[in-house]
Task: inverse folding
């Protein structure tokens, strides 16, 4: 297997459910501990809404074959959505008390990371262009709505303990086996549709693994 392909296999894991979902909920818990209840609730609502929309598009295709053939669309990319939603928010909050230049660099870096995750899904043939672009747009909307509201609030302090917790969650998530989210979505789709077999796109194969 080419080394470049292996790189993308490992890189795409940075946006796995095991990694970014715990980090997203850690952000909400942290905001709650700081008694920033409105920010915590807003973040949870926006992020969970994004997850629900991703799941709904996949359930619609797997259960009923509802997609957009002309765009090769069979469901929004969850990896792209999670990356575009979580990375900018973490980047902004971690450097909220720094200069505007530092914040701008953090946001641009997080956007570049999100785009790279989207590219990884294309390289690994897990999604089409329409699916990763819609994921980036949805995740970007989640982050933009949250960040548009955050600057009007007092600065949220970021500390070493939180950074260590984020690093621990990321490392643990990367080492763990991928969560069987696609299998869960398929079960829900079949239950709701009443069908015995799922609709499958040609790309819907076993998750790419380095093993």
Result:
């Amino acid at each position: 297997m080419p080394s470049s392909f292996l790189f993308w296999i490992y890189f795409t894991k940075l946006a796995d459910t095991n990694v970014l979902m715990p980090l997203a909920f850690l952000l909400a818990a942290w905001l709650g501990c700081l008694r920033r209840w409105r920010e915590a609730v807003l973040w949870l609502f926006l992020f969970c809404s994004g997850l629900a929309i991703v799941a709904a598009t996949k359930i619609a295709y797997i259960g009923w074959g509802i997609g957009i053939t002309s765009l090769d669309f069979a469901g929004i990319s969850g990896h792209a959505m999670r990356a575009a939603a979580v990375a900018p928010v973490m980047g902004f909050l971690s450097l909220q008390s720094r200069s505007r230049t530092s914040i701008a660099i953090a946001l641009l870096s997080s956007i570049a990371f999100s785009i790279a995750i989207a590219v990884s899904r294309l390289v690994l043939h897990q999604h089409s262009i329409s699916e990763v672009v819609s994921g980036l747009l949805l995740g970007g909307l989640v982050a933009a709505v949250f960040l548009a509201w955050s600057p009007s609030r007092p600065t949220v302090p970021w500390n070493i303990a939180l950074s260590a917790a984020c690093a621990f969650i990321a490392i643990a998530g990367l080492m763990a086996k991928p969560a069987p989210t696609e299998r869960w979505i398929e079960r829900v789709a079949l239950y709701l549709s009443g069908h015995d077999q799922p609709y499958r796109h040609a790309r819907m194969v076993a998750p790419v693994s380095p093993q």
Notes: The two ends are 11 Å apart (CA to CA).
